[in-house]
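Moderator note: this is an archived Q&A kept for reference. The question asked for a predicted structure of one protein chain; the sequence and the answer are reproduced below.
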Amino acid sequence: MLLDVSFNFLLYLQTNLTVVMEFFLLGFQGSQLLRNLLFLLFLVVFVATICGNLLIIILVSTSKNLHTPMYLFISQLSISDILLPTTIVPNLLHILLNNGGTVSFIGCLTQFYFFDCTEVFECFLLAVMSYDRYVAICNPLRYTSIMTNRFCNASIIISWLIGNVISFIGTITSSKLNFCGSNIIDHLFCDLVPLLDLSCSDTFSVHLVIFVLGAPTLIVPTSIIVVSYTYIVISVLRIPSSTGRQKAFSTCSSHLIVVSIFYGTIFSVYFVPKREQTWVTSKILSLLYTVLTPFINPIIYSLRNKDIKKAVQQTLHKHISRNKH
């Protein structure tokens, strides 16, 4: 009798503590019409994002007047802005069409890895870009000696390495979590916060990694950006003519807009207490830096930049001339 009770109890535990091997992403729940409209919207934005960022990469690589540190960094930003939505949007479109969708445990961690890697890389790249603008405005005579090809390439490589290393450590740590209850993720993609909410194991090690690695990842780039723009503002205000001030500030206004949008949404998602925002709000904010920001970055840099406009015109003129001949 005792053996039967023990066997039944073990069977009950095995049945109810089954290790979760796949997750179900809810995405946006609503009517079929709403989800179809969102599908079309995200599809158009995704295609436009890829085309816009590819255009910038091609222009920077082929136009000699864009072979400068600033445009090298912009092209790297475009690479990141292609990788990030490519990691998120295709699966999101599938979820919208099917009113949710399953993703394997490995697939979930893989998506998180690439998502986290591009986000960390962009944090440090935006910091490097702010330093570039600081040197250009505050030390213009030393610009070419400071922003050398070696320095620029090293900055890009280090930013990618930091992104990969931090993402790898975070992914490996997260892979050791146990999931034995619900497998439903009320989110658009596999982010760390909803995974921690679902885990039935001790998450102290993951929170420790987040604190040790995540805090410097945001604090260091943010500090570089704040210090750089503090000196930029001081230097611009010292320019006697209003025309000179406007011209100096216009060289970094596009970058400042991109930084404000990117960091504003990041801090809203990860630092605003969860009790003050619903999951719907969290999803919308997540869309801002995973879908909207990569979409508007090429628009901001192209519409507000004379050099890129000129490069587009020259490319179109060459293409038209070739077709005529």
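Archived answer notes: The chain has a mean pLDDT of 82.
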